[in-house]
Design goal:
This protein is α+β, with helices and mostly antiparallel strands. It has 15 helices and 13 strands. It has two domains: about 200 residues, 2-Layer Sandwich (Cytochrome Bc1 Complex, Chain A, domain 1); about 180 residues, Cytochrome Bc1 Complex, Chain A, domain 1 (2-Layer Sandwich).
């Protein structure tokens, strides 16, 4: 195999106890720096609150306007990604190593001294609401919302089906309160990857690693996942659409479960690449759709299995029938060694691409951290890929592919 085990990140001790994980490599003078704050959707008191709080950090800080922050980033050719997930709020800086220290000061101001200006909040809310309204006419987007509602239940933060009114309900006081509770050194974890030197580490220590800062409490573990709330068919009408979307699946195992990696292999074989069983049957042989996939969606420590496709209304029922046919085949018939080797080679090739460069590798280790597993799990996945057998895959199919546990969501006409 061309792909060998990855070198694991090295933890750097910060005086204030904030973990910093360092992944060195000569990435052409480029560096990626991540700040991760425990919290996310799982602890928000209102829908969308985590997302808006994180997004508003760049709308003015320590006397800098949003335009001035953007100008500084543009001047140095850098950018910042900001998003929220189930149990974490993410801030990622990408820049050249030689510009890291001055940009770190901008990032520090954004994180420690945000202003949350009301006018900017009104604009951000309006823009995001407009984007939401446009997406609310897309069958794939709406089917994802209702699939997650069925997975988690309406009372869980991830199960709430967002409405336009949720955007109007967010206030500046909500954002200030959420920020005060979850942004601080006690909830922070840092990753840095790429061309890193001692001056950069010293700057990180001075900005984020020396004194205790921010919120005075540590966020506990994320909400325990409830059992799946629904199974069976759920149809959601969306008038004037050209086709319908279908999502099928169930809540699967934790990332730490011993079946997790081989089940991921099974998902790729079923619907994770162009020559997969679902694509060969439903696209190539029957022509029901242009694309169909099977994958694992990560929600913090938990994962959902999901088959996803779009098709003309008259093809939805035969498409669903063929999905179950392919699941039954995996239950009833051992997979041929030739097909396993083909999938193995495909996955290894994709991982070679995914692991190219220190920034991409850092993303892999961050995902391991988010899933609650240790960094060595990344290399265990490589070992599992190399050792999977037909008996493994048939056992997994028999244990997990049970129609009575399957959620089906169909959105369209």
């Amino acid at each position: 195999m061309l792909l060998e085990s990855l070198t694991l990140p090295h933890q750097v001790a910060m005086p204030n106890g904030v973990p910093l994980y360092r992944l060195d490599g000569a990435d052409r003078g480029v560096v990626r720096f991540d700040l991760l704050f425990k919290g996310g959707y799982a602890v928000q008191g209102k829908p969308l609150l985590a997302m808006f709080t994180n997004r508003m950090l760049r709308e003015g800080a320590a006397g800098l306007s949003a335009a001035e922050i953007s100008q500084k980033l543009d001047y140095y050719g850098a950018w910042i990604d900001m998003y929220s997930s189930q149990n974490c709020n993410h801030i990622t800086l990408y820049t050249m190593s030689k510009h890291f220290v001055p940009l770190l000061k901008v990032l520090e101001d954004m994180v420690k001294h945000p202003q949350f200006p009301q006018d900017n909040l009104d604009t951000v809310k309006s823009n995001n609401k407009s984007y939401f309204m446009v997406n609310s006419h897309k069958v794939d987007v709406v089917s994802q919302r209702y699939f997650e509602n069925s997975l988690w239940g309406a009372e869980h933060p991830l199960g709430h089906v967002v409405e336009a009114a949720d955007y109007d309900a967010i206030t500046r006081d909500d954002i200030v309160d959420y920020y005060s509770n979850y942004y601080g050194s006690r909830n922070c974890t840092m990753f840095i990857a790429g061309s890193v030197d001692d001056a950069m580490l010293a700057a990180i220590t001075g900005s984020f690693g020396s004194d205790i800062w921010g919120c005075g409490k540590a966020c506990g573990e994320s909400v325990v996942v409830p059992p799946c709330q629904m199974s069976g068919r759920r149809v959601v009408g969306l008038p004037d659409t050209m086709q319908s979307a279908v999502k099928m699946g169930f809540m699967a195992m934790d990332a730490s479960h011993p079946d997790f990696f081989k089940f991921r292999f099974l998902c790729v074989l079923l619907g994770g690449y162009f020559g997969s069983r679902l694509m060969s049957n439903i696209r190539e042989d029957n022509g029901y759709t242009y694309h169909i996939s099977a994958e694992m969606d990560a929600y913090g420590h938990r994962n959902a299995f999901m088959v996803s496709s779009e098709a003309a209304n008259e093809y939805i029922e035969p498409l669903v029938k063929e999905v179950y046919h392919e699941l039954d085949r995996l239950v009833d018939e051992p997979v041929d060694e030739t097909e396993i080797e083909l999938v193995r080679n495909y996955i290894m090739g994709e991982l070679c691409r995914e692991y190219e460069g220190q920034s991409a590798k850092s993303e892999v280790f961050i995902n391991a951290w988010l899933s609650g597993t240790d960094f060595s799990s990344v290399n265990r996945y490589l070992d599992e890929i190399k050792s999977v057998t037909p008996a493994d895959l048939q056992r997994l199919a028999r244990e997990y592919f049970k129609k009575e546990n399957m959620i089906e969501v169909v959105v369209g006409c």
